[in-house]
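Appendix B. Raw example, untouched.
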Amino acid sequence: MGGDEKGGFDRPAYSGEESCVMQYFAEQAKASGLQHHYDNLGNLIIETSGAFEQWVETGSHVDTVPCGGNFDGLAGVVAGFVALQSIAKLTPPLHHGLRLRIWRGEESAAFGITSIGSRAAFGQLSPSSLTMKCRGKLLREAMSDQHADPAAIENSTPSISADEKEHIAAYIELHIEQGKLLETEQRNIGIVTAIRGSRRSWISLSGTFDHSGATPMGNRYRQDCNLAMAYMHVRLDELVHENITNGFDLVQTIGVINSHGDKNENLAIYNNAVSKVSGAAFFSHEIRGADANEVAAYYRQAEILIHNTAAEFGINARIETFSDQSGIGTLNENIQQQITDACDDLKLSHAHMPSGAWHDAAVVAGQQRRNGSAIPVGMIFIPCRSGISHSPDEYASSQQIADGASVLATTLLQLASRNIQAD
């Protein structure tokens, strides 16, 4: 569905391929005696039968990046489904019901927006998102094609009502790590402590195009954007390591250099040449961290560094922030302990670690109840081979998925059993 192992998988948000996988789980739910329904945004909800005051939830997504793997998101859906299926067969009555949410469109690759389904479910997706395009279609059109209602986003109407949000006792998401820590440390399970958010900007530099041979060296004569950019990159790397040494949890990436179609045209990048001093340059700058205050503090330092370096080289720098997504500084500590206990009971080694990638769990963790408390959220990581993700080479073994599903099922059962609360 949406690809094969050699060429990778392509299941964009609100595509027929994404819907096909979701429909498969709807059919499996029916065959297993589980209840299921779609909300008006196209998210699929699978539940244990019965009337419950509170619900313990799990969830993930099935969409992929282009030429992606088949484990990012889907492993969590499979584990969550198997957990519900197994627990539903048990005879002891549960204090809480169990629910699996299969969210639409977690990946930003399709429409440039992360967590479309979960953010819209809580009424937190901007109506302007409906004008974003993928495969030549507006999000509005793609939603309609998959029998979802774009008016819910247009009117900021949540599909999870305030009352329903009050009755989510806990939410736990299983995911592949998308990194190498668990494999390197030979640990079976990662217990996620925090989820890093990100701040992303374009840095555009403008100087003077000059003859490469006739223009003497030195900043007095040259306003060289590429050279200034190189200094910025080195200095930003030194700056982030200084902040890490001082205790900040940050990662920084320069992902794009002079190679974005729209900006190439607008910034005259094509006027650069082998025989010219560079008069234009640009690069992307991303900083990730779980603590929003740390990210903001570092970003201010980075802005000053960029502008000071530009002034040193006699060029102009413009900083355009196009994405600012706050992280989750701490996931629910009680759920972390429940996951730890489950690992110990199952004799599975584990490590506590932050998530470097964004997940729908972060959206849920950012929700508050009427009394101001957050929905208790936890995450379980399983190893993935060589830390590779968003690639056809993405892989987690059946045993690793089974181990994660066992930890998830044990934790869900503990939280849903009588006299056990998440918060």
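End of appendix B.
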